[in-house]
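Lab meeting, item 3. Inverse folding demo.
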């Protein structure tokens, strides 16, 4: 099972990925998490990526494609994987098609999260994340039981640097300009599954499961 979670910043991809990992037993490959890890480690990749991320821009395709190409060769991906935040440009989508095809594999579904813009801004403005396990919280809808402490792993719950209002604006613009066209790429291949990603986390989770199960059973959704 190989599928991708696709959608604008704040649409809930990371939140849903954490539940899907538990239910489906396949790993989440989040390029955003990989880049944040690299920044934390102070690696060359981290230093380079930080320049783009703090401005709400995309990290160059050549870096991102190499990162995913080596990640999907890891043993934990043998039974399938779930991409979160990749592909984000048409060039990344084409490269992914090629690397999967070379291994006799294919992406079954691209689940596209639809959320209105004011809701996205609201979700990002209040978002808090665990700096250790990446769990997502929100100042209004989902606070950790103990302020500043992750319910799951006890790590520190903090704001993300790129959730500042001016960076959020740039990220949403980048999404519309560079990332949204990826939908057409997968629509043409019959792999795009658009879901309403508003409502409770549980409601959205059920919609995703329905979208990916339908495809697993060979029934195409429209
Ligand atoms: P990345 O980390 O991938 O960020 P993103 O795509 O902008 O997505 P987010 O993580 O902001 O949002 P999300 O959809 O996961 O929402 P979440 O579940 O947290 O990328 C960061 C940066 O890295 C990029 O800007 C770019 O620079 C670089 N990058 C990464 N991948 C790249 C690539 N492939 N190519 C080039 N550059 C790349 O939810 C948000 C909030 O909403 C949370 O507070 C959550 O609790 C809340 N929430 C979730 N669901 C609901 C719900 N149903 N109702 C109410 N609240 C909800």
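The presenter then showed the designed sequence:
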């Amino acid at each position: 099972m190989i599928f991708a979670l696709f959608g604008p910043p704040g649409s809930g991809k990371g939140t849903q990925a954490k539940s899907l990992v538990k239910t489906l037993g396949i790993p989440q490959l989040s390029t955003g998490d990989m880049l944040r890890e690299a920044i934390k480690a102070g690696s060359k990749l981290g230093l380079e990526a930080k320049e783009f991320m703090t401005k709400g821009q995309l990290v160059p395709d050549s870096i991102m494609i190499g990162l995913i190409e080596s990640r999907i060769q890891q043993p934990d991906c043998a039974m399938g994987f779930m991409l979160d935040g990749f592909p984000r440009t048409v060039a990344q989508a084409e490269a992914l098609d090629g690397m999967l095809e070379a291994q006799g594999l294919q992406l079954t579904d691209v689940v596209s999260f639809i959320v209105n813009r004011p809701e996205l801004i609201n979700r990002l403005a209040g978002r808090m994340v665990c700096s250790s396990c990446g769990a997502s919280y929100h100042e209004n809808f989902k606070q950790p039981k103990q302020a500043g402490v992750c319910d799951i792993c006890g790590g520190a719950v903090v704001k993300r640097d790129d959730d500042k209002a001016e960076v959020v604006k740039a990220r949403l613009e980048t999404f519309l300009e560079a990332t949204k066209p990826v939908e057409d790429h997968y629509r043409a291949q019959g792999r795009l599954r658009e879901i309403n990603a508003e409502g409770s986390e549980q409601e959205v989770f059920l919609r995703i499961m329905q979208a990916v199960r339908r495809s697993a059973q060979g029934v195409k959704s429209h």
